[in-house]
Amino acid sequence: MSTEKKYLKSKPICKVKFIAPKEITKNAKTIAIAGDFNDWNIEQTILRKQKSGVYARTLDLEVGTEYQYRFVIDGVRWENDWDADKYVPNNHSFDDNSVVVI
User: Fold this and answer.
1) How deeply is 48 buried, as exposed, middle or buried, from its count of CB atoms within 10 A (0-12, 13-18, 19+)?
2) Is 23 helix (H, G, I), strand (E, B) or coil?
3) What are the chain's domains?
4) Which in 23, 45, 48, 53 has the greatest CB count within 10 A?
5) Under 8 Å between Cβ of 43 and 75
6) Terminal CA-to-CA distance of the chain, rounded, Å?
7) Distance of alpha carbon 82 from alpha carbon 37, whole angstroms
8) How far is Cα 66 from Cα 50, in angstroms, rounded to an integer?
């Protein structure tokens, strides 16, 4: 699983932990996530290496929304989340975008 969701009871927010698969992080210097939640900025949301060796980052996202996103390796290589909730075509390439449904 590449995302873990924790819904807050006190407000309509879900803490979503995005986890980059080890297969795409091998030999990477930086791993970021770009998507609707950060205006597709490839430098704003850098994942951090966890004790387990995977790279991850937790974001607070609004409940009742779907967010498109992709992992960005070393600022140039775009990768999908292989375990995303769903996929939608993007307008910039022949690839799809990953989608997390909150």
Assistant:
1) exposed
2) helix
3) 3-101 (2.60.40.10)
4) 45
5) yes
6) 15
7) 19
8) 26
- The 8 Å CB, 24+ separation contacts for 59-62 are 59/15, 59/16, 59/18, 60/13, 60/14, 60/15, 60/16, 61/13, 61/14, 61/15, 61/16, 61/37, 61/100, 61/102, 62/12, 62/13, 62/14, 62/102
Dihedral of alpha carbons 4, 42, 66, 86, sign:
negative
The angle formed by the CA atoms of residues 49, 51 and 53, to the nearest 5 degrees, is 55
Question: How far is 34 from 25, CA to CA, in rounded Å?
Answer: 15
Residue in the block written with tokens 């951090």 = 48
What Rg do the C-alpha atoms of the chain give, in angstroms?
13
At residue 92, φ and ψ (nearest 5 deg) are: -110, -15
Cα 25–Cα 29–Cα 33 angle in degrees, nearest 5: 60
Using one digit for the tens of pLDDT, what is the confidence trace for 6-19?
999 999 999 999 99
